[in-house]
Amino acid sequence: MFAQLDFTPVTDWLAFFDYLGLFLVAVWGAYCCIVVWRRTGQLLFRNESEQNAFLGDVQELVRRSQFKELTDLCEDDPRVVPSLTLLAVKNRHFPAAQLRAFLTERFQRDILADLDYRIIWVQTVIKAAPMLGLFGTVIGMMGAFGKLSTAAEVSPDKLAGDIMFALITTAIGLSIAIPLVIALASISNNVAKIEDLTSTALTRLQGIFQEKRGP
To answer: How far is it, in rounded angstroms, from Cα 82 to Cα 75?
Structure first.
C-alpha cells in the first residue's frame, strides 16, 4: 500500500526544514566560535614576558603594601591573571596554600567553566551538521524512490533533483563541520595556553603573598 503513495509533498517540506536546520546550526556554530575565540584572546597576555612584567609590578606593589594602587591596576583588566590578582589582594589574609587553592577554584569555576560551556555548543554543532546532512540524504533518496514507485516512467531530471539534494545536504553538513573542527582545535590550544600561563602565575602569586606575610 505504501509503495503506491506519493511522498513528494512530505519530502519537499522535510527538505525545506533540513536546509533551514543546516543554516541555523551553521550560524550558531560560527557565532559560538567567534565568541569563544574572542574570549580566549581577552583572557591572555600577548606573551609570557608581558605576564612576567605584570607580576613584577604586582610583587613590587605588594612589597610596599600599596594595595590600593594594586587594586586600581587590576580592577578594569579582563585578563585572567589581573582578575586573580585582584581576588588575591581581597583575600590576602588567607594562608598561602589556602589562597592558592581558592584562586585555583575560582579560575576553574569562573573562567574555564564559561569557556567549556561555549566549547560544548561548538562541539554540538560539529556533531549535528553531518547528521542533518545525512538526514537530507535520506530525504532525497526517499523522494527518488517514491517517484519510481508511483510512476511507470519517470523523467531523469526529476530523479536527478532528488539525488542532487541528497548529495548537496551531505556536502553542506561536512562543509559546516570541517572548518569548525579546525577552529575548535585552535581554540583548545588557546585554552591550554591559558591554563599553563595561569598555573605559572598562581605559583608566583602564592610566593609573592607568602613573602609579604613572612615565614
So the answer is: 8
**Residues 163 and 210: beta-carbon distance below 8 Å:** no
Q: Is the pTM of this model over 0.85?
A: no
Instruction: Report how far residue 88's alpha carbon sits from residue 206's, in angstroms, rounded to the nearest whole number.
Output: 9
H or E segment to which residue 205 belongs? helix 156-213
Which residues, including other chains, have CB under 8 Å from residue 22's CB and lie 6 or more apart?
Answer: 129, 132, 133, 136, 169, 172, 173, 176
For every residue of 2-27, which 3-state class applies, written as one string? HHHCCCHHHHHHHHHHHHHHHHHHHH
Q: What is the pLDDT of residues 6-62, one digit of tens each?
A: 556 777 788 889 999 999 999 999 999 999 999 998 998 888 899 999 999 999 999
> Cell for 82?
589581573
Instruction: Show the low-confidence residues of the chain (pLDDT under 70).
Output: 1-8, 149-155, 157-158, 212-215
Give me 110's grid cell.
569562573
The alpha helices in 44-79, defined as continuous H runs, are: 48-63, 67-75
What's the burial of 166, exposed, middle or buried (CB within 10 Å: 0-12/13-18/19+)?
buried
Cell of 148: 519510481
Q: What angle do CA 110, 111, 115 make, to 5 degrees?
A: 120
Please state, as a whole number, how many other Cβ atoms lie within 10 Å of the Cβ of residue 97.
10
